[in-house]
Amino acid sequence: MGLLSSGKALSWEDTKKNADLVRKVGIQQLVTHYHRLKDRTNDQLKFGDEIEYTIVRLDHEKKVAQLALVGPETLEKLQEEEKRTLPENILTAWMPEYAAYMIEATPGKERPYGWCVMNYNIVESNMFTRRKQLLKALEGTGCVPLCITSFPRLGCPGCTHPCYKPTAEGGISNSLFFPDEAIWSGHPRYRTLTRNIRQRRGENQAINIPIFKDKSTPSPFIDQLPTSDAVRLNNTLPDHVCLDCMGFGMGMCCLQVTFQAVNMDEARHLYDQLAVICPIMLAISAATPAFRGYLCDIDCRWDIIAGAVDDRTREERGQEPLKNDKFAIPKSRYETISCYIHPKSDAFNDKLFPYDEDIMKTLQAQGFDDQLARHFAYLFIRDPISLFEEKLLQDPNTETDHFEAISFAVRTYNDIHILTYTEHSVHELDDHEV
User: Fold this and answer.
1) Using CA atoms, how far apart are residues 54 and 215, in angstroms rounded to an integer?
2) Whole-angstrom distance, CA of residue 232 vs CA of residue 61
3) Of 106, 160, 162, which is closest to residue 133 (Cα–Cα)?
4) CA of 345: how far to CAs of 176, 187, 273, 361, 371, in Å?
5) Closest CA to 94 of 80, 114, 113
6) How far apart are CA 385 and CA 375, in angstroms?
7) Alpha carbons 130 and 78: distance in angstroms, whole number
8) What is the pLDDT of residues 332-357, one digit of tens each?
9) 3 state SS of 104
10) Separation of alpha carbons 222 and 259, rounded Å
11) Residue 223's closest CA among 177, 164, 286?
């Protein structure tokens, strides 16, 4: 879920006040690091994967499976083992994810896979090592790690262990179904994102999933929400299951792949090629047919993720005339790409989408070609969602936090995204999370 910054997380009100500053400095950071990296070449093609695990507690006597909120203590065990190992001998790296029942693992920081064909032989072996380490850390707990996209009963009463009730009013999620205690509490980012996305939107998310109908399904099927809130009830469609917060999307798991390209041109070419391949991979790997305990008439998680982080206001969604907002935005910030970015692909950019014309002109004046300038001008119509007080004053020449606050940090997070990191001075791409 991106790089974790530390510090005091700002409220949505304070984040909104600093949005223009973040955009301005973020573009300066982009320009600085683009010029530093644009002519760099001859890097090796490298790649790595990230696997997110769902930790489930199995009660064999009662025949009950629950999401086990043991992620923080399990991560502590795994990272302690890392600290006792020499860097060159670390085969795996462990980190937190959005939910307290999740944990993420990658190959060791010193062990990315390379361009040679023989590297493909060690991918599965490293995945096996990660699973073996996680199973050892969970010994004696009655818990097992599952590589599933979504726990089918997420949002049902008693779906977590320990069992918590959701806080429908005055909580972080304000969810009717998802308890705040299921959000990872070890870093302020996750709860801040959950709260700020909801507050920017002005209401809870309304993700309607079509119910699968058989001969016993009522018609129409009406999802009985435990609330009298007129807005929530009006946002619920007949014959659909309602999901109402970020946790239903970010509480899912996936496999991600990150590539380091040889140079910027190759990175942009790879971006465009993956944009075509990823929907096919998404269809092949679709494995999410159940939500809140209901069998639904879809089997892919993508629309749920998109809806879970949809922070657009009613004006931006086209439900009210533009008055306080600048753009009508057709997509959630977590969605498919809107344009190709390599100059040779420009003939296929036949779809209209909003972008900030002033930012595009600024980038063009700094030597960005039209395709790349338009891409970033589109990303920067968004507001930052998560800011830290200690990171507000940024040096455009050495830092990238404000650029990442909009382009990467949950996020104008497309199915493909192109990244640059100061720390490593590399070009990176992330393919579709499938």
Assistant:
1) 33
2) 38
3) 106
4) 45, 40, 10, 21, 9
5) 80
6) 20
7) 10
8) 988 889 999 999 999 999 999 999 99
9) strand
10) 45
11) 177
**DSSP three-state, residue 285:** coil
Please calculate the CA angle 174-71-1 and round it to the nearest 5 degrees.
70
Under 8 Å between Cβ of 68 and 143: yes
Query: Length of the chain in residues, anyone?
Result: 434
Residue with tokens 């109908």: 213
Task: Note the pLDDT tens digit of each residue in 383-414.
Answer: 999 999 998 998 888 888 999 888 865 444 67
Cα separation, 408 vs 384, in Å, equals 10
Distance between CA atoms of residues 276 and 431, nearest Å: 11
Q: What is the 3-state secondary structure (H, E, C) of 331-390?
A: CCCCCCCCCCCCHHHHHHCCCCCCCCHHHHHHHHHCCCCHHHHHHHHHHCCCCCCCCEHH
Chain segment 160-197, per-residue pLDDT in tens: 999 999 999 999 999 999 999 999 998 888 999 999 99
Residue with tokens 């009717």: 176
Q: Are 342 and 272 in contact, with CB atoms under 8 Å apart?
A: yes
What 3 state SS string does 134-194 have? HHHHCCCCCEEEECCCCCCCCCCCCCEECCCCCCCCCCCCCCCCCCHHHECCCCHHHHHHH
What angle, 0 to 180 degrees and rounded to 10, lies between the N-to-C axes of helices 370-379 and 357-365? 140
Supply 278's token pair.
Answer: 């990823």
